[in-house]
C-alpha cells in the first residue's frame, strides 16, 4: 500500500504515542467496513471500533462504538449533555473530518469534534479503529485514544 501517512498517523507520530498500523486489501463490495476489517485482520469484532459522525443539538459530534453494535443516539446526546441526536449527512461528516466514509478516524480530524468512546473499549488492552483510510486500521490503547481525542467515555452502543 503506497503512502501510509494520514492525518491520524501523523498525529500519533507527532505525539509519540505507541501504536501499530494494520493494513488489508479493502473490498468495495463488502457491506460493512468495520466487519471487513475484523475479518481481514483476524480479530474478534468487539475489539474493532467504528467512527460515526452524528449531530447533537445541531452540532457535529463523533461516537466510537464496536463494529458489532449500533450507535445509541440518546446515549450519545446524554454523554455530551445534549437533548437530541441524529446521524449526520455523509457529506457533512466527510467535510468536517477530512476523511471519506468508511475511513473516518477519530484521530487527526480537520475540525476537532467532540468524541464519545463506548465504555466497552475498556474491556481490551488495545482496540482497533480507522487510521484514516479504508483498509488501514490503528491499534491503540483506549486510554491513549481517549487522551488524544479528549473523548468522554460512556455507554453509547446498542445491539
Short overview:
The chain is an alpha+beta fold. The protein has five helices and ten strands.
General description of the model:
There is one protein chain. 25% of the residues lie in helices and 29% in strands. The strands form 3 sheets. A 5-stranded mixed beta sheet has the order 5-2-3-6-9. Strands 1-8-7 form a 3-stranded antiparallel beta sheet, sandwiched between helices. A hairpin with a 2-residue loop joins strand 2 and strand 3 (59-66). It is globular, with a radius of gyration of 14 Å. It has one domain: YbaK/aminoacyl-tRNA synthetase-associated domain (YbaK protein). The model has no long low-confidence stretch (mean pLDDT 94). The longest helix has 9 residues, at 33-41. The chain contains 5 helices and 10 strands. The protein has helices at residues 7-14, 33-41, 73-79, 90-97, 142-149, and strands at 20-23, 49-56, 59-66, 70-71, 85-87, 115-118, 127-133, 136-140, 152-154, 157-158. It is of the alpha+beta class and 159 residues long.
Secondary structure elements and pairings:
Layout: H1 7-14, E1 20-23, H2 33-41, E2 49-56, E3 59-66, E4 70-71, H3 73-79, E5 85-87, H4 90-97, E6 115-118, E7 127-133, E8 136-140, H5 142-149, E9 152-154, E10 157-158
Parallel strand pairs: 3-6, 6-9
Antiparallel strand pairs: 1-8, 2-3, 2-5, 4-10, 7-8
Organism: Lentzea fradiae
Domain YbaK/aminoacyl-tRNA synthetase-associated: 36-148
Keywords: Lyase, Protein biosynthesis
Amino acid at each position: 500500500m503506497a503512502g501510509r501517512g494520514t492525518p491520524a498517523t501523523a498525529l500519533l507520530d507527532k505525539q509519540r504515542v505507541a501504536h501499530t498500523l494494520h493494513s488489508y486489501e479493502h473490498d468495495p463490495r463488502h457491506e460493512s467496513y468495520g466487519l471487513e476489517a475484523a475479518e481481514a485482520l483476524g480479530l474478534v469484532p468487539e475489539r474493532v471500533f467504528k467512527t460515526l459522525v452524528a449531530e447533537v443539538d445541531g452540532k457535529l459530534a463523533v461516537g466510537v462504538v464496536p463494529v458489532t453494535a449500533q450507535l445509541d443516539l440518546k446515549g450519545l446526546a446524554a454523554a455530551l449533555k445534549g437533548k437530541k441526536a441524529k446521524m449526520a449527512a455523509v457529506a457533512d461528516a466527510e467535510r468536517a473530518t477530512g476523511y471519506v466514509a468508511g475511513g473516518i478516524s477519530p484521530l487527526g480530524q480537520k475540525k476537532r469534534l467532540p468524541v464519545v468512546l463506548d465504555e466497552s473499549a475498556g474491556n481490551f488492552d488495545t482496540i482497533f479503529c480507522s487510521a484514516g483510510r479504508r483498509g488501514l486500521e490503528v491499534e491503540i490503547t483506549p486510554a491513549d485514544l481517549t487522551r488524544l481525542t479528549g473523548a468522554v467515555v460512556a455507554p453509547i452502543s446498542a445491539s
